[in-house]
Structures are given as structure tokens and as C-alpha cells.
Amino acid sequence: MRESAASRTAYLVAVRRAEHQVLDRPPVFEDPLSLRIMGPDFLAGINPGRHSRRQRLSRSFRAYMAVRSRYAEDELARAVSEGVRQYVVLGAGLDMFAYRNPHTDVGLRVFEVDHPATQAWKRECLVAAGIDAPPGSSFVAADFETHSLAEVLADTGFHFHQPAFFSWLGVVPYLTDQSFDQTMRFIAERPAGSAIVLDYSVPRTSLNTIEKMALDKLAVRVANVGEPLRLFFECPALAERLQTMGYRDLEDLGREEMNARYFTGRPDGLRVKSTLGRLLRASV
Questions:
Q1: Which residues are bridge partners to 141 per DSSP?
Q2: pLDDT band for position 49 (50/70/90)?
């Protein structure tokens, strides 16, 4: 991403999460603060009456944004029930978990790791929305291409000898392979009980014709804002790579698994339609 500018893709993801709270009933992922941080003008501009082809595509993308956040927080809740008390949100953007943390009573600490420019923008948004950073949360400025997690977490109160849960959503496709590898190896070295949920994209060759066209358009848009797509994985190859690092109990969800778990029986027909993005949980 551009060095001095906040992430444009982080803003677009926040838009979809906020729209989901209004347009999809019931929401798969409940996050009222995602509307508040976007401001009253944003809410007033949401128009549920539009039904263009672009809106239908946006709806599927919105479903994916919602389900990946829901999945990450479901897995976090499971980790907390098993004793984890540290949550590291990698590439936090406008993620609002820290400000509605339901696990404060058990002492869950939240570390938001993000690019300095995006983090500064988020702080401005929080001030404008009147949302205070709660005790037990920390901002950690980092660029995944130039900093290691070990380096940036060293002076934050993060306990390296205790297990931690990590989420890494909407980031991996924009990374180099080297920075992905470095971060995943750091997490693999955490104590037993640690885990990560991330999303990743499959190669263009794995998509059908319509999905290839959609990916090509997306690639142009994000490249134009300085955040080109760079990293794609075949499912079996990624699983083998992570197992080699020491990860175990991998769960990899594609479109069908996401829809079966989170969208079955919805009267509005909301579902994930693309096979481009997948969700993965890996434990240490």
C-alpha cells in the first residue's frame, strides 16, 4: 500500500461490514459499532432498494466479508474458552472487536496490528465517533513487509510465553510470499493452544469464466489504489506448507462449507457465490 495513505481496501471492507448490519436481516455477523464508526452520513446513504447487477455482486462480496469476521470471532470464542487470553488482530483496519470485546471479564487483551497510516486514520475515526479505546487493548504499528511480529510486539505487553489467537483477514492476498512466511512461522512458534484464522485467495486458474472476469476487475481496482493482489494459494499446497511449519488441526472452508454453516435456511437467500476466497484455521 502507499506509504503515507490509509488502506483504501480496509475502508471498502468496513463499508461492506456496516452495510451488512442494515441490509441483511438477520445479520450473520452482528457488529453495531461498524455503523457507528462510519458516521451518520454513511447510514443515511444506504439504499436497500437498488437491485442492479452491481448490487447483486456487492451482496455476495458483503456475505463473504461478514462470514469471515463471524468465523474468526467464533474461533476466538472457542480459544478463549480453552484459556487463551491474548488476541492479535493482524491488519485490523476498522475492525471493531476491541471496542465491544465480550471477553473482558476473563481478561482477554486485544492487540491491533496495522500499517501506521491506516492506524492513524482509524484513531481519527474513533475520535469522530466518540468511541474510546478500552483498557486491555493496544495499537501496534507495523508494516508486514518491513517489520517482524516479534519486533513490533516486543514492547506492547504481549506475553510471548503464553498462547495467543491471531486473525489475519483481508491481508494475505496483498503480501509477498516472504512476509507471509515470516509471520506464519512466528505464530507457529507460539506456545501450544495458539491458533490463527486467515483468509486467502485461490489462483485465477481455479476459477470459472465469470469469476475470472470479476477477479480481473478487482485486481485493476486495488492496483489503482496502490494495493495490488500478489499472493494466491492452492488449498493442498498451503495445507502441506503450514503442516511443515508445525501447524495442526487445519480447517479450510470454501464457498459450500461457508454457506452450509452460516447461510442455510435464510429467507433472503444471502450467500457466498464466489470460490475465490477461502477461510482457514490452523492451530499450534
A1: 114
A2: low
C-alpha cell at 259: 454457506
Q: Which residues pair with 251 in a beta bridge?
A: 281
264's CB contacts (< 8 A; 6+ apart) are: none
Q: Are strands 277-283 and 195-201 parallel, antiparallel or unpaired?
A: antiparallel
HSE of 165 in the Cβ direction (CA atoms, 13 Å)? 21
**Residue whose C-alpha is closest to residue 70's, from 109, 104, 26:** 26
Burial of 249 by CB count in 10 Å (0-12 exposed, 13-18 middle, 19+ buried)?
Answer: exposed
Contact 266, 20 (CB under 8 A): no
Residue 197, Ramachandran bin (φ over 0: left; ψ between -120 and 50: alpha; else beta): beta
Strand duo 248-253 + 109-114: pairing: unpaired
**Cell triple for 2:** 502507499
Radius of gyration of the chain (CA): 18
Of 92, 98, 79, whose CA–CA distance to 163 is shortest? 79
Q: What is the mean pLDDT of residues 55-62?
A: 79
The grid coordinates of residue 86 equal 491474548
Whether the pLDDT of residue 45 is over 80: the answer is no
d(CA 78, CA 73): 9
pLDDT more than 70, % of the chain: 94
Which of these, 154, 150, 187, 153, lies nearest to 168 by C-alpha position? 187
Give the relative orientation of helices 235-245 and 177-188 as an angle to the nearest 10 degrees.
Answer: 50
What pTM was estimated for this model as a whole?
0.93
9/210 Cα distance (integer angstroms): 22
